[in-house]
Amino acid sequence: MKEQPQTTGKVALTYGTLLGVLSITQAVILYITNSLLDQNWVTAVVGFAIMIGMIVYGQMVFKKGNGGYMNFKEALKVGVGIAITGALIAALYNFIFLTFIEPGFVDLIVEKQREAMIEQSPNMTEAQIEQGLAMAGQFARPWVQSSFQIVGGIFFGFIISLISGLILKTENPYQD
After folding, report:
1. What is the number of domains present in the chain?
2. Other beta carbons within 10 Å of 8
3. End-to-end CA distance of the chain, in Å?
4. For 24-74, how does the pLDDT look when each residue is reduced to its tens digit (9 = 90+)?
5. Which domain covers residue 65, as residue numbers?
6. Is residue 159 included in any domain, yes or no?
7. Of 126, 121, 146, whose CA–CA distance to 27 is shortest?
8. Cα–Cα distances in Å, from 18 out to 41, 57, 58, 156?
């Protein structure tokens, strides 16, 4: 019995779900360790490495499941599919977290921004600070954060898929 080749959708859904779960796991670890507000470049690099790893690994699984062949279009479909699935799952968790699990977290974000503004520009008036925080508060809303998370995930997923797809592609010489 001949083994069925991998489909772009199945691989994207499988590894995109894994990407979403790993992203949620990272967020939960940061929350449990009270580090969620203190994110730094290390946190960003870890999140980015998880995304790169899942996209590249998913493309490699697809390629292996198709006799060692994967054209550029397939690599892009798999990679972007993984990124979209992962971003949607992570954004849904983020929305649920900010809306139901820890609804006061947005206020903590705004307060942290207040402290940063005062530290960076000690000569700002209270009116200027309040005006800046009003704008920051609009961007801290759960649906806005989740929307940016989806758009950012798709954008970076596309870039990663583009690069890894160019590296991993192997055209099938027997395909017409």
Report:
1. 1
2. 22
3. 24
4. 999 999 999 988 877 788 999 999 999 999 999 999 999 999 999 999 999
5. 8-102+142-168
6. yes
7. 146
8. 23, 11, 10, 17
Angle of helix 142-168 relative to helix 126-139, nearest 10 degrees, comes to 60
- 118 within domain boundaries: no
Residue-wise DSSP of the chain: -PPPPP-HHHHHHHHHHHHHHHHHHHHHHHHHTT-STT--HHHHHHHHHHHHHHHHHHHHHHHHHTTT-B-HHHHHHHHHHHHHHHHHHHHHHHHHIIIII-TTHHHHHHHHHHHHHHHH-TT--HHHHHHHHHHHHHHTSHHHHHHHHHHHHHHHHHHHHHHHHHHH-B--TT--
The reply to whether 31 falls in a domain is yes
d(CA 63, CA 19): 19
Q: What single-letter amino acid sits at 131?
A: Q
Instruction: Please tell me the pTM assigned to this model.
Output: 0.88
Residue with tokens 């005062």: 118
Q: Which amino acid is at 75?
A: A
Residue 109 in any domain: the answer is no
